[in-house]
Write a structure and sequence with these properties.
Strand content: under 5%
Structural class: mainly alpha
Shape: elongated
Number of strands: 0
Number of helices: 8
Radius of gyration: 21 Å
């Protein structure tokens, strides 16, 4: 992994607040631990940058399959059962009890290596057994949801502390940007990160409209 930019690095002490909601609405505790472990292997954290666990990705997934992605609940239920059966058959323990390297091997088995021209994802082989097809579908969905949960607005349960946005230098949700901020070469990391919740709190103290009006526009009617 490349050395993290000190501007985007997030110390552990500044990661997800312990006061944020941690309630599960769709997954039970065991299911959530397994999903969280998979997500952490997809976006692992280290001493400098938050990973999927720090970002609360599992809570985004839990809310998603209880809301706009309810059609994927069956994928999670069946996939988790198949994964548990596979790990217990091959290693004698559930996925969460495997070491990081062994977990990576399981993930690669169904998603392919980290770097390649195209991951297998939803591409099923005719030789796949029913359980293998279920697991390929399951891991592909978890991967997609993990990315969504890492970079979504925190209001949706993931990206806690805006760690995903800070990692890539995205300033988040703003009412608008000044001409200077929109200019080529401007470093977006210098703009304070804001979330939808921040904007909601600012509704009683909005900036004047002319801050976001181009000087060369004639506003007279």
């Amino acid at each position: 992994m490349a050395t993290p930019d000190p501007v985007t690095a997030v110390p552990a002490a500044q990661r997800a607040s312990s006061s944020e909601s941690v309630a599960l609405v769709s997954l039970n505790d065991e299911e959530a631990r397994t999903v969280e472990a998979i997500a952490e292997r997809l976006i692992p954290g280290d001493d400098h940058n938050a990973g999927a666990t720090d970002a609360g990705v599992v809570y985004y997934i839990d809310q998603a399959i209880g809301g706009f992605s309810t059609d994927l609940q069956t994928v999670y239920r069946r996939g988790l059962r198949e994964l548990d059966a596979l790990c217990r058959h091959e290693s004698g323990v559930p996925f969460t009890d495997l070491g990081p390297a062994a977990q990576d091997d399981v993930v690669r088995q169904y998603l392919g290596p980290e770097v390649q021209e195209s991951a297998e994802g939803l591409q099923f082989s005719r030789a796949d057994q029913p359980g293998e097809a279920i697991l390929r579908r399951f891991f592909a969905v978890v991967r997609e949801h993990t990315v969504e949960g890492f970079f979504c607005d925190p209001v949706y349960g993931g990206n806690r502390g805006a760690v995903g946005w800070r990692l890539v230098g995205f300033p988040g949700a703003h009412w608008g940007y000044t001409a200077k901020e929109m200019a080529a070469g401007f470093d977006g990391r210098s703009v304070p990160v804001k979330t939808l919740s921040d904007l909601r709190r600012e509704l009683t103290n909005l900036p004047p409209n002319d801050v976001f009006t181009r000087n060369d526009l004639n506003t007279e009617r």
